[in-house]
Specification:
The complex is a heterodimer of chains A (258) and B (265).
Chain A (H helix, E strand, L loop, with lengths): L5 E12 L6 E12 L3 E5 L6 H9 L6 E6 L2 E2 L7 E4 L11 H12 L3 H14 L15 H14 L4 E5 L7 H18 L2 E6 L2 H7 L2 E5 L6 E6 L11 H22 L1
Parallel strand pairs in A: 3-8, 3-9, 6-7, 7-8
Antiparallel strand pairs in A: 1-2, 1-4, 4-5, 9-10
Helix pairs in contact in A: 2-3, 2-4, 3-4, 6-7
Chain B lengths: L11 H29 L10 H14 L1 H33 L1 H14 L4 H12 L3 H25 L3 H8 L5 H37 L6 H10 L3 H29 L7
Helix pairs in contact in B: 2-10, 3-4, 3-6, 3-8, 3-9, 5-6, 6-8, 8-9, 8-10, 9-10
């Protein structure tokens, strides 16, 4: 897949927390462009500010300096063109699976027939067609995250921001969902910003992998992943990327422990 | 599922027999006691009429038609007072749960007034608003407000902020956030408040009907006291008990329906 024009432009973004805005710098001068239809993974040690960066792009928090442009227009708050998938799933527990997937469509005031068509389509896409009438408490973690992904996709955003979406899942479920996300992305072609701890996950999914430094977070290195769209976790090229990125990440993790 | 109970689970029919048996046993003991009083001439039996006399009195009032008028009067006061208090508590509670400034303004006043037993301010209501209908309804409004306000604030405050973020990034406006996220997310606590408020309404209405009322179940009790009609006093109390029970059962039914998502079958 060839990357398109710049979709997200993170312009010299810095973020400091604390009342005086100086006490704890979380991000320093992050400059980043994500191309349309690109899946960019952000890797880094715990506390490096990768979730902060995602929250700034989502519009949940404001940067201390710098700005985020989407299609050239500055982000001022959360919006429907940037869907978010959280690590904690964050489904609406009082709505059924179908009700959750439908949520954004109801907000837009779409007609019931059209909503039903869209809900069916995306529940089929994530393999939950048979569970439309269940409530979130009845679902496993993997199923909840599928609902959350379907909910984000059904709203048809240009951008999807994923904050360690598979971090709370067991290893098997995790790999299955990675494969599904990769398959879905070959159909949907969204611009995806994907935060993860897992190097294997990043190499499996990403068009580019961005490694951040330990706190305060800066961009350390960017690895374009030149592998076929359908990837083999056991191919020698895959392993090469994995070990190269692992070395870079280890340098940063070591700094945390010094 | 209930935890901490001794004994193995009872089959439903046996549990029902125990429950019905307890009520029958209660009536039998009551009958026996009032019978003993009559037989042994312990004191004037007028003080402790048997259950059949009380039930007979209730039926008599029911047939004569007076009972319905009294029940209607009480229920109307409870309904108007409760709904007014609940609406005010809901509106203020949701605002106080979300806006820090409002919370800091409202909470200290509520915390100061709340420990005062509502009954203590009833005479003030009468002095300020008079002895008529307004002070009775206003008094229920006042009493209902506190539990509803506190549960609403609590419900709104414990909403997971991520739910709000999720809704916002699906395109929710503030109005949509309010009725599609905040209200349903706080609903379990709000309904607990409704249940407490309904119970408290029945609790306080009787006393306010002791004073300057011409009808209502509280009036019936007070009227019975003035004229030494013990069966009438007990009968009105029984009817109040049944009404309170029905009110509680109604709210529970509502809870089971709208909170089905918490434990769907």
């Amino acid at each position: 897949m060839t990357p398109g024009p710049t979709k997200i432009h993170v312009q010299r973004v810095s973020k400091a927390f604390g009342a005086d805005g100086r006490s704890a710098p979380a991000l320093v001068d992050v400059e980043l462009e994500v191309a349309e239809r690109e899946l960019l993974c952000i890797l880094g040690p715990s506390g490096c500010g990768k979730s902060t960066l995602l929250n700034i792009v989502a519009g949940f928090i404001q940067p201390t300096s710098g700005s985020v442009l989407v299609d050239g227009a500055p982000v001022r708050g959360p919006g429907a063109e940037r869907g978010v998938v959280f690590q904690e799933y964050v489904l609406f527990p009082w709505l059924t699976v179908a009700g959750n997937v439908e949520f954004g469509l109801v907000l837009k005031g779409l007609a019931a027939a059209e909503r039903r068509r869209t809900v069916t389509r995306y529940l089929e896409l994530v393999g939950l067609g048979a569970h439309a009438e269940k409530f979130p408490v009845q679902l496993s973690g993997g199923m909840k995250q599928r609902v959350a992904i379907a909910r984000a996709l059904a709203n048809n955003p240009a951008i999807i921001l994923m904050d360690e979406p598979f971090g709370a899942l067991d290893a098997q479920t995790r790999e299955v969902l990675q494969e599904e996300l990769s398959r879905i992305q070959r159909v949907e072609h969204k611009t995806i910003l994907f935060i993860t701890h897992s190097i294997r996950e990043a190499v499996y999914l990403a068009d580019r992998v961005l490694v951040m430094t330990s706190a305060p977070g800066r961009i350390k290195q960017v690895f374009p992943i030149k592998l076929p769209e359908v990837r083999d976790r056991f191919s020698p090229e895959f392993t090469q990327y994995e070990s190269a990125i692992t070395r870079t990440v280890k340098e940063e993790v070591a700094k945390v422990h010094e | 599922m209930e935890w901490g109970l001794r004994g193995s689970a009872l089959p439903p029919r046996r549990a029902w027999r125990l429950r019905v048996g307890a009520i029958v046993g209660f009536l039998v003991v009551w009958s026996a006691l009032s019978g003993v009083v009559v037989v042994l001439r312990l004191f004037n039996p007028i003080f402790l009429p048997g259950p059949w006399l009380v039930i007979g009195k209730v039926l008599e009032l029911g047939v004569k038609g007076d009972l319905w008028m009294h029940v209607g009067a009480t229920l109307q006061r409870v309904a108007v007072g409760f709904v007014t208090g609940a609406m005010a508590a809901l509106a203020l509670g949701i605002m106080a749960g979300q806006v820090r400034v409002i919370r800091n303004l409202v909470e200290p006043i509520v915390e100061l007034l709340r420990p005062i037993p509502p009954l203590a301010v009833l005479p003030l209501f009468i002095v300020w608003i008079g002895i008529g209908e307004a002070s009775k309804v206003g008094f229920i409004t006042y009493a209902t407000f506190f539990p509803m306000f506190l549960t609403t604030v609590h419900g709104v405050r414990r909403i997971d902020p991520l739910l709000l973020r999720a809704a916002q990034s699906l395109g929710a406006t503030s109005l949509q956030l309010f009725h599609r996220v905040i209200l349903p997310a706080a609903l379990p606590e709000i309904l607990t408040g409704v249940r407490l408020g309904v119970a408290l309404s029945f609790f306080v209405i009787v006393i306010s009907e002791f004073i300057g009322a011409e009808h209502g179940l509280g009036y019936l009790i007070n009227d019975g006291r003035n004229f030494f009609l013990v069966p009438q006093m007990l009968g009105a109390a029984v009817v109040l008990g049944l009404l309170g029970y029905a009110g509680n059962a109604l709210v529970r039914l509502l809870e089971r329906r709208v909170l089905r998502w918490q434990s769907p079958s």
